[in-house]
Amino acid sequence: MKKTLYIAAFLLTACLTGCSGSKPADTAVTPEPTTQPTDTPAATPEPTAPPTQTPTATPEPTAQPTQAPTATPEPTGTPDADQPEEDGAMFEDEIDYMALLKRTDHLGTIEHISYPTKDYYGDGAEITKHAYVYLPDGYDPTKQYDVLYLMHGIGGSEREWGMTGDSSKVKKIMDNLIFNEQAKPFIIVTPNGRSSADFANTNADYNSFYCFGQELRNDLIPYIDTHYATYADCERVNSTDGTEANGSDSSNDAPADPSDNGETGQETAASYDLAASRSHRAMAGLSMGGMQTINIGMCECLDLFSWFGAFSSAPTSYPASEIAMKLTAFPDENINYFYAICGTEDGVAYSSARGAVRGLTDICDKLDDSNFYWQELRGAHDFDIWYLGFYNFAKIVFQQ
User: Fold this and answer.
1) Cα–Cα distance, 285 to 296 (Å, whole number)
2) Alpha carbon 125 to chain centroid distance?
């Protein structure tokens, strides 16, 4: 019986071993699962398709950066909206070289005149003085023109600005500015600022400069108004040959004839209302002429002028406090514009020029940022600053 059980166990083991041996035969069919890997590689191209889509999407992000730069100009526009910066932009730190070129067409002319006046610093005796007059291109006696009275310094004369002929830098600047429509066509007068019989002596007593307001009001302005096409409402001298109307030979550098005093047709200050055309008159000057512009033109004759340019105004210029006080004497007169300039290395006038304007807009109700500008830049007491001052002033005067 026991032997029979052993035989049965042996047979069962053999049977089981045979069954387990059939498994390798089944594994021989494992190539069937290999068909699944072939499915997997076949599917791999499908995943590769999405990557091709991602590159096509990349241009969309790149379009956004291009929009960002277009937005950046918006912040830069805010400084331009600041009014003081716009005012400052009107005034250059150097003259455009094109404005200094001598034109061959569209030229203004320069005349040398003589006019009757008095020795206001002396005994009041009648004398004859001289000046130069710039007339813009196309000057027409039937029209009306603004007038700038341009003053010299303490050691100069009516010739100091060099406005005596075609080579004049003032003339070149004006001819170019007018041609390029950067300035209005206006008349310029360069007189001698000494109101004395000794006016021709550049070493004469400088106190005669302070009497020039009387000469302006009583003699020079009436002469210009009656002999040139200004805005003044007065009778004018009519002449076909031009000598009487101009007061002298109109050739560029001809010497003035002292006997030609222009008395014919001359009106005095009382003959017509000079103040009625004050908005069409300006006064400007260098050094001592800058002082005259401030002390006389603005503080004494505000009823005659409304535009002012002071270039390195001399040490005897009124300080801001006195200017403000003296302007109270003209409650009804406005100031169209006051422009002042000086070089920071100017050992003669920087302190006085700055003192005349420092804080002026805070204590004077006639001036603010809209009609006043102070310009200081590297420079000395010389024509580099003064011609720049004239150039900048010529572009803004009479523009309102």
Assistant:
1) 11
2) 44
Collapse the DSSP code of 104 into the 3-class scheme (helix H, G, I; strand E, B; otherwise coil) and give the result.
coil
**Residue 263: closest CA among 74, 97, 65, 128:** 128
What are the structure tokens assigned to 260, written together? 């030609």
Give first-to-last CA distance, the chain, whole Å. 140
Interval 252-281: pLDDT, tens: 444 334 334 444 445 444 589 999 999 999
Contacts of 355 by beta carbon, 8 Å cutoff, 6+ apart: 317, 319, 320
Q: Extract the tokens encoding 83.
A: 């009014």
The length of the chain in residues reads 400
Residue type (1 letter), 145? Y
Domains of the chain, CATH where assigned: 104-396 (3.40.50.1820)
Mean pLDDT across 164-181: 97
Sole residue written with tokens 């096409």:
229
Question: Are the C-beta atoms of residues 268 and 217 closer than 8 Å to each other?
Answer: no
Percent of the chain topping pLDDT 70: 70
Phi, psi of 127 (to 5 degrees): -140, 170
pTM confidence score:
0.74
The residue behind tokens 């409402």 is: 233
